[in-house]
Amino acid sequence: MKITKPDYQQYRRYYQIISEIQKRPNTHLYTTVAFTFLAVSLFAWYAIRPTLQTILYLRREIADKTEVNQKMEEKIASLIEGQSNLAQVEPNLPLLSQAIPQTPDAVSLLNQLHSLAQTSGASLSAARVSDVSVTGEEASESGEMSLIVTLAGAFEQLQAFLGGMIDMRRIVTIDSISFTPNTGGSGQEGTGPLQLVIKLRSYYQTEGVYGQ
What we know:
Layout: H1 5-23, H2 26-89, H3 93-99, H4 106-120, E1 123-130, E2 144-153, H5 155-166, E3 172-181, E4 194-203, H6 207-210
């Protein structure tokens, strides 16, 4: 087969093109692939980023709502328990107002002490109320009222009086107790009954103490 000159020139151009392609470095192809992959990754990231942010926000919101619901359930359980306890003690609430009245109510307290003295057989000879008036018009802001009570009687009678104070509905505390022989007008110690002097403290409700 004889190759003419025009055919030779045409094949020569083909060889030159193939040679140039073969001489190209492989890094060019790798760079193209890398940039292509980077571009696809960036487009994919910007496409799914809002979705990821929404998912993370929803998960955080669900966790917050779950915590709030748990706390609400605990509060509801506490309220139910408190209501149950209130229902149990509600019949005894009137006793609380008798134990700690809203006013000093010194007259009522003195009457209780006088009745207790009669029941125990002792004689209440004197009683003095300090810090507040008998009617309670000059009530102390501390919610406390102090009394000094003097009784006369046998040791057993005075002991019964002290024991009866524990069962009184009005709450009182004892600051001091003193026993002295009572001469009974004879001028000689030991010939008469004992004399008991008690310093008491009672309580009542005030706005400063109970927030009413």
